[in-house]
Amino acid sequence: MTANAETVVVSPRVRTATATAAVRRKQGFQHGGWFIAPFLLLFVLFVIWPLLRGVYLSFTDANISGEGASFIGLDNYREALHDPMMWDALGHSAYFTLLVVPCITVLAFLLAMLAHNIERGKWLWRLCFFAPFLLPSTVAGNMWQWLFTQGIGLFNETLGIQTPWLTDKSYAMIAIVIETLWWTVGFSFLLYLAALQGIPAHLYEAAKLDGANAWHRMLHVTLPMLRNITGLVIALQVLASLQLFDQAVVMFDFGTGPENSTRPFVQYTLEQGFTSYRVGYASAMSIIFFVIIAVVALARMWLLRNREEGGAR
User: Fold this and answer.
1) CA distance 57 to 273
2) How far lies 116's CA from each of 126, 185, 311, in Å?
3) Nearest C-alpha neighbor of 183 from the set 234, 248, 229, 232
4) pTM for the whole thing?
5) pLDDT tens digit string along 236-248?
């Protein structure tokens, strides 16, 4: 390739190589499209179409039969925004999230540190910490319902206390939080454990040479290296906790807890759609909840991007 002060002349060999690469990329995309087509079909069928259908129904007074629906504009959204029971349910989901996310993040980190640094029986510790996550939600919920039941439950009879976990609104949400921590901490534990194993050993060796003890090594080496995975764990747990449903429904036998103190947003939406048969109203609440989840996810991405840009400077 030759060049002067005004123009750049590309040799025939470079033009041929560029054209060949473009043809190969086009052919690769055409062939690869057949491999992703099944996923795209299922994604459109079970995600995009239900979402668009839900948006449409939210502007109607559709019932569960799907017949005779008429367009009512923003009436469902106005009613939802002025529905105190909806805000109570959303508050329960938010309260549960505020309780679970910090606890599960710290607990998962501590368990991962234990399983990573222990010398003997590592496989057993890892299995014990991760195994509950493999249980179906109904199994975990029913098991902890029995543990919390007065008169026969482990938490009362064996420990010698008489706390009304499932019948007092002061303890009902705490019971769900405890069950959720035991059931789901294994996933975050696995993320932290994988991240710990990826920290270069020479960083710890350099810290030791500088006289850093175990506490300082964790504070100045481990935690900074786990910053990204911690952000991921928090984001995933926030999104999952806001969608609380299984634990509350199973532990309270498809009820709403004492004095409706544990009814989450998702359960209230389902009640409106499948108990009150107000599919249009339930769709409007679902769209509102979708917007809340999207805002949380976008806020997390914005904070992460700003932090990365600040670190780059």
Assistant:
1) 11
2) 9, 16, 28
3) 248
4) 0.84
5) 999 999 999 999 9
